[in-house]
Design goal:
Oligomer: single chain
Radius of gyration: 20 Å
Number of domains: 1
Family: Belongs to the short-chain dehydrogenases/reductases (SDR) family.
InterPro entries: NAD(P)-bd_dom_sf, Sc_DH/Rdtase_CS, SDR_fam
Strand order of the largest sheet: 3-2-1-4-5-6-7-8
CATH architecture: 3-Layer(aba) Sandwich
CATH class: Alpha Beta
Number of helices: 10
CATH topology: Rossmann fold
Pfam family, one: adh_short
GO molecular function, one term: oxidoreductase activity, acting on the CH-OH group of donors, NAD or NADP as acceptor
Strand content: 5-15%
Structural class: alpha/beta
Shape: globular
Number of strands: 8
Largest sheet: 8 strands, mixed
Order of helices and strands: HEHEHEHEHHEHEHHEEH
Protein name: NAD(P)-binding protein
Distance between the termini: 44 Å
Bound molecules: nicotinamide-adenine-dinucleotide
CATH superfamily: NAD(P)-binding Rossmann-like Domain
Length: 293
């Protein structure tokens, strides 16, 4: 565990984790509980999520985790999961917008020779629904919950939101058109929201891993990579934890490939010419659009 993550004090806090039945979400839930955090474990898969929560409660001998079935693409289901969690644990200090799926084929493969025999089909946008809209649902819930609760007396923050993005959010790849789009959208949204919430006792950050062995990636795909190029789940969870507690970091895109961790900066090409023009009107534009008063 890095110095930063090991110094974070979060005992007594409460977290809401989507995609908690497997992979990063499950490992994160375990780590949070080991640090004295209560966890609302949310997943579309009920059985394994409940089993994991039961194990955490049995291990600690306390009611530290609840499992709630919710499809992250349905806002009302996430809201209901929060309300249940609030009844049990009182508040939520950390929201992890983590649930995700791998790229799903969105239109049939390009094949001019057979295209005349096939109708033009509607795209399958499920990848965007889960990886972009599902995580934005968590964000929408988090910001409105933070707005309605007092700052945490131990760290002074109303709350913290952490997204699980991906390195393909910066580097578009041919094999993940919608997944890359969703992750790029998350990184961009995180940077925008971090500006709006920076003076409101709320932090927003994203963790962007490269390929890691979890259930999202099939063995067939994992076998294409050298083991040393893969990230470890522990290193990713460590980065997730590092921005909690009294950490003031906001707007970071913490990225991991293999054993290397870095902050991926926003695009800078032409930024000095473009940003002054945009920032002059940013407050007024938001007002004109009805985003704030
Ligand atoms: N593993 C990797 O290589 C890798 C790399 C970069 C980013 N990520 C991201 O990490 C996050 C977690 O994925 P993981 O690698 O732990 O995979 P995983 O498949 O092990 O876990 C994802 C979890 O999300 C849940 N889920 C899927 N759709 C859902 C929905 N609509 N509502 C609620 N829950 C849903 C699944 O049931 C599963 O438990 C995802 O956002 C993924 O895109 C993974």
């Amino acid at each position: 565990m890095s110095d930063t993550a090991s110094q974070v004090v979060i005992e007594g806090d409460v977290a809401f984790v989507t995609g908690a039945a497997s992979g990063f979400g499950l490992a994160l839930s375990n780590e949070l509980v080991s640090r004295g955090v209560c966890v609302i474990m949310v997943d579309i898969v009920e059985d394994s999520c409940k089993k994991a929560a039961d194990e955490l409660n049995a291990k600690t001998g306390k009611n530290v985790a609840i499992a709630v079935k919710a499809d992250s693409t349905v806002f009302e289901e996430q809201l209901a999961a929060y309300e249940l969690g609030k009844e049990v644990f009182g508040r939520v200090d950390y929201f992890f917008a983590n649930a995700g799926i791998v790229e799903r084929p969105w239109i049939p493969p390009f094949s001019p020779s057979t295209s005349s025999t096939r109708p033009i089909t509607k795209p399958n946008l499920r990848t965007l629904d889960v990886d972009l809209n599902g995580q934005l649902n968590t964000a929408a819930l988090a910001f409105q919950v933070f707005e309605r609760q007092e700052p945490n007396p131990r760290n002074g923050f109303r709350g913290k939101l952490v997204f699980t993005a991906s390195v393909v959010g910066y580097y578009a790849v041919k094999s993940a058109p919608l997944y890359s789009t969703a992750k790029a959208g998350i990184v961009h949204f995180m940077r925008s929201a971090a500006q709006y919430y920076e003076d409101k006792g709320i932090t927003v950050n994203a963790i962007s891993p490269n390929i890691t062995v979890t259930a999202i990636t099939s063995q067939e795909i994992l076998s294409l990579f050298n083991q040393e190029d893969l990230c470890s789940i522990d290193l990713v969870v460590e980065q997730m934890i590092s921005v909690l507690g009294s950490c003031k970091d906001n707007g970071r895109a913490i990225s991991i490939t293999g054993k290397t961790v870095w902050d991926n900066p926003p695009d800078t090409l032409m930024r000095d010419q473009v940003l002054p023009v945009l920032s002059v009107g940013d407050d007024a534009i938001g007002k004109a659009l009805g985003l704030w008063q």
